[in-house]
Every structure is written in structure tokens, then in C-alpha cells.
Specification:
This protein has about 210 residues and is mostly helical. The protein contains eleven helices and no strands. It comes from Bifidobacterium breve DSM 20213 = JCM 1192.
Length: about 210
């Protein structure tokens, strides 16, 4: 149960839960180096979850628990869904038949969220080019068999969310987009990332990049 946890404890619990699922994700060619890098995994995932409020965190924590209960691995599934772009033949044969199929409505709504976040990421990269250069390539059109874009990664992740979690996530993105000025969640996430890495501001982190 997560009800007795503080919000910060809940975030940490989610990151650890994802890490445990990540340890059971099989990669073609053997175990990936990043599967042994807890500090970077923790920094990157916590930076994202610091932008989430309690209801969304609780819903996603429930998704992870339910996945364990029914024998799903949401981290494995996320990477599998990305292969629809990076390895489409393999995806169609070995992955798509074994993962939940999304409705047309859900896919359409996800694409609206993705378009907003890609626009935010592009805006961030235009203002912080050095930090942007360290990010994933931006769009699915840039995917290769060995390179997964920000857009494709996001599409893979959103596809693993339950309907309730996606509803809350979509509402969060819409709320940020409807404010003036907009609250760029990529910028918020990257600020959290560099602060967890010891910098005070994005400008400071940008200046420190070679």
C-alpha cells in the first residue's frame, strides 16, 4: 500500500519498482550497460516523477503493482513498444501479439500529448543547445535500429499506462499547455535532472557542458 507513504517516498518507491522490472528486461545481445547503472537510472526517472502530483503517482504505482500481479513487466513492454519504430518487423512478429492493444481513441489522444511534448522539447533544445545535444534525438523520423528518439520513447511509455493513469497524465499536460506562459514539462524535468546532478540552474548546467 502506498497510502502511508509521503509523496517523496512514493516517488522513490516507484523508481525502485521500475528498477526491479528493468533488471528483468532482456535485451538482444545480452544485458545492457545501463541496467547496471542505478545512479543514472535513479536521477533520470526521479527527475520525471518530481513533475507529477500525488494522484498520478498513486495511479502509476498501482499500474506497476497490477503488472506484477498479472505477470506483465511495464519496463520491458515500454521498450518493446518502441520497436514499432526501431525494429518494425521484429515488433510485428514477436511483440505486438503479446502486449495489450490500444484503442484508436487512446492512440489519437496519446499522439496529441506527444505532439505537445515534442514541441516543448524542441523549444528547450533551441534555448539550451548543449544540454539538448546530450538528450535523445527528437523525432521518430530520426530513429534507427540503435537510436531511439524522445518521441518514440514517450510513445512507448505512454502506451504502458492504464486508462486511469493516462487520463491523469493527459490532464497534467493539458493544464501545463493551457497556462500563460506554458509550463514546459521537458524544461521542468531537465531542471530536476541537473539539480539532482549538483547544479543550481539550467544556465549553470548549460555553461558547464563542453
Amino acid at each position: 500500500m502506498t497510502d502511508n507513504l509521503t509523496t517523496d517516498e512514493l516517488r522513490e518507491t516507484i523508481v525502485h519498482h521500475e528498477w526491479n522490472q528493468f533488471q528483468h528486461t532482456n535485451n538482444e545481445g545480452g544485458r545492457a550497460a545501463c541496467q547496471g547503472n542505478w545512479p543514472v537510472f535513479h536521477q533520470m526517472r526521479l527527475a520525471q516523477f518530481l513533475t507529477w502530483e500525488r494522484p498520478l503517482l498513486s495511479s502509476y504505482a498501482a499500474d506497476l503493482d497490477e503488472a506484477d500481479h498479472v505477470g506483465r513487466n511495464l519496463v520491458t513492454e515500454k521498450y518493446g513498444r518502441m520497436m514499432a519504430s526501431t525494429a518494425p518487423d521484429d515488433f510485428a512478429k514477436n511483440i505486438e501479439p503479446y502486449i495489450p492493444r490500444l484503442t484508436e481513441s487512446r492512440v489519437s489522444r496519446q499522439e496529441q500529448v506527444i505532439a505537445q511534448q515534442v514541441a516543448w522539447a524542441a523549444d528547450f533544445r533551441s534555448r539550451y543547445p548543449k544540454l539538448g545535444e546530450a538528450m535523445r534525438v527528437l523525432t521518430t523520423a530520426e530513429d534507427t535500429p540503435t537510436t531511439t528518439s524522445f518521441e518514440t520513447y514517450l510513445r512507448g511509455e505512454l502506451g504502458t499506462y492504464s486508462d486511469m493513469t493516462f487520463d491523469l497524465y493527459e490532464a497534467m499536460i493539458r493544464e501545463r499547455a493551457d497556462t500563460t506562459p506554458q509550463h514546459n514539462i521537458t524544461e521542468e524535468t531537465l531542471l530536476n535532472t541537473v539539480q539532482l546532478g549538483g547544479f543550481s540552474t539550467l544556465d549553470e548546467a548549460e555553461a558547464a557542458q563542453r
